[in-house]
Design brief:
Layout lengths: L1 H29 L8 H24 L9 H20 L5
Helix pairs in contact: 1-2, 1-3, 2-3
């Protein structure tokens, strides 16, 4: 059971970085720092969109964008952080 929880923690860490990449990429595209018509940028954008949008959609149903600012990435990062803290603090020490 312990290796399963450790793999889950690694997946959550990876997903944390995917969310950060998605946020940074959206800022760079919106401020015209990088061109979204570039094939590499478009591929990275699509990958991060496909990985993060299902989770964002669930959060957006509960918390709509406030004043044009989308808080769903922040809420998702907070949820991942709290889940990691719960797994490492309360579950992992009691698993063989």
């Amino acid at each position: 059971m312990k290796p399963i929880i450790e793999v889950l923690l690694i997946i959550l860490d990876f997903y944390w970085f995917v969310i950060l990449a998605s946020v940074i990429l959206s800022w760079l595209v919106n401020f015209n720092v990088i061109n979204s018509r570039n094939e590499v940028v478009r591929t990275i954008w699509r990958i991060t969109y496909d990985l993060t949008e299902p989770a964002y959609r669930v959060i957006r149903r509960v918390v709509p964008p406030l004043g044009g600012i989308d808080f769903s990435p922040f809420i998702l990062l907070l949820f991942i952080y709290l889940l990691q803290r719960y797994l490492t603090g309360y579950v992992l020490p009691y698993v063989w």
